[in-house]
Design brief:
Number of helices: 3
Distance between the termini: 25 Å
Order of helices and strands: HEHEH
Number of strands: 2
Largest sheet: 2 strands, parallel
Helix content: 40-55%
Strand order of the largest sheet: 1-2
Radius of gyration: 11 Å
Length: 72
Amino acid sequence: MTATARNGREALEIIKQNAVDLIITDIKMPYMDGLELIANVKKLNHKIKFIVISGYSEFEYAKKAIDVNVIG
Protein backbone atom coordinates (compact mmCIF):
# COMPACT_ATOMS: atom_id res chain seq x y z
CA MET A 1 0.00 0.00 0.00
CA THR A 2 1.17 3.51 -0.80
CA ALA A 3 -0.35 6.55 0.88
CA THR A 4 0.33 10.27 0.86
CA ALA A 5 -0.38 12.66 3.71
CA ARG A 6 -0.53 16.45 3.53
CA ASN A 7 0.74 16.96 7.09
CA GLY A 8 2.07 15.12 10.14
CA ARG A 9 -1.31 14.61 11.80
CA GLU A 10 -2.79 13.08 8.68
CA ALA A 11 0.26 10.84 8.31
CA LEU A 12 -0.11 9.57 11.87
CA GLU A 13 -3.74 8.66 11.26
CA ILE A 14 -2.83 6.75 8.10
CA ILE A 15 -0.11 4.89 9.99
CA LYS A 16 -2.50 3.98 12.82
CA GLN A 17 -4.96 2.46 10.33
CA ASN A 18 -2.53 0.61 8.03
CA ALA A 19 0.41 -1.75 8.15
CA VAL A 20 3.45 0.36 7.33
CA ASP A 21 7.07 -0.73 6.76
CA LEU A 22 8.67 2.52 5.57
CA ILE A 23 7.88 6.20 6.04
CA ILE A 24 9.41 8.95 3.93
CA THR A 25 8.89 12.27 5.66
CA ASP A 26 9.99 15.85 5.42
CA ILE A 27 11.25 17.53 8.57
CA LYS A 28 9.08 20.63 8.12
CA MET A 29 5.35 19.90 7.87
CA PRO A 30 2.22 21.59 9.18
CA TYR A 31 0.69 20.57 12.54
CA MET A 32 3.37 17.99 13.38
CA ASP A 33 6.91 18.06 12.01
CA GLY A 34 8.63 14.96 10.67
CA LEU A 35 10.71 14.40 13.79
CA GLU A 36 7.65 14.61 16.03
CA LEU A 37 5.91 12.19 13.66
CA ILE A 38 8.80 9.74 14.00
CA ALA A 39 8.71 9.94 17.79
CA ASN A 40 4.95 9.24 17.80
CA VAL A 41 5.21 6.39 15.29
CA LYS A 42 7.98 4.72 17.30
CA LYS A 43 5.56 4.52 20.23
CA LEU A 44 3.19 2.55 17.98
CA ASN A 45 5.70 0.37 16.13
CA HIS A 46 9.45 0.49 16.68
CA LYS A 47 10.14 -1.67 13.59
CA ILE A 48 9.05 0.93 11.01
CA LYS A 49 11.96 2.41 9.02
CA PHE A 50 12.22 6.10 8.16
CA ILE A 51 13.74 8.24 5.45
CA VAL A 52 13.91 11.92 6.39
CA ILE A 53 14.28 14.61 3.74
CA SER A 54 14.78 18.29 4.18
CA GLY A 55 15.85 21.39 2.35
CA TYR A 56 17.22 22.79 5.61
CA SER A 57 20.94 22.74 6.32
CA GLU A 58 20.74 23.72 9.98
CA PHE A 59 22.52 21.28 12.30
CA GLU A 60 19.72 21.59 14.88
CA TYR A 61 17.47 19.44 12.68
CA ALA A 62 20.15 16.75 12.40
CA LYS A 63 20.62 16.80 16.18
CA LYS A 64 16.88 16.34 16.73
CA ALA A 65 16.89 13.46 14.25
CA ILE A 66 19.67 11.79 16.21
CA ASP A 67 17.66 12.30 19.41
CA VAL A 68 14.82 10.19 17.94
CA ASN A 69 17.33 7.58 16.69
CA VAL A 70 17.11 8.33 12.98
CA ILE A 71 19.97 6.58 11.21
CA GLY A 72 21.69 8.59 8.48
